[in-house]
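Researcher: Next sequence.
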Amino acid sequence: MLARWRPFDEFFNLYRDIDNMFRRVFYDLTRDLEEWFAPRSEEEGLPRLSSSWIPVEAFVDQGKLHLRVEVPGVDPKDLDISVTGNQLTIRGRKTFDRKVEEANFIRREIAYGSFERVIPLPEGVNTDQIEATYRNGVLELVMPAPAALEVKKVQVKVLEAPRAAEAAAK
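Model: Next structure:
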């Protein structure tokens, strides 16, 4: 069966795809901006902590997988770490322990409240051997690294150029 080619249909499809892409991007952006600017924690009227602002770094060193999570100002007793399947969840709460009148604030850039960060772990991690330490506002989780995360060196082979190409270059 032959179908009639309609060239403008391709333009409409392209328009729809680009429109969908912008909707997805701006939905995520506006959601993050709403968390940062608009809401305040109910009890203190202070900026609320957003999970997207909890920085994490992961690296492998000497056969161990290290996850470092910056949680400055969070009391280690207020941290809860759990593992479900291959997902590590870190929950915590950063509190403001002083009573300051609303009129006395000059600037508010430090966020407070509860947060949760879910970090997918690579396949093969033995979650029974995770060790957690906290020092100077940094939570570090260390566990044996699976073999798939080992750094493998790749040898670069140098090929000789063909003689004709060398002659043409001269």
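Model: The radius of gyration is 26 Å. The mean pLDDT is 79.
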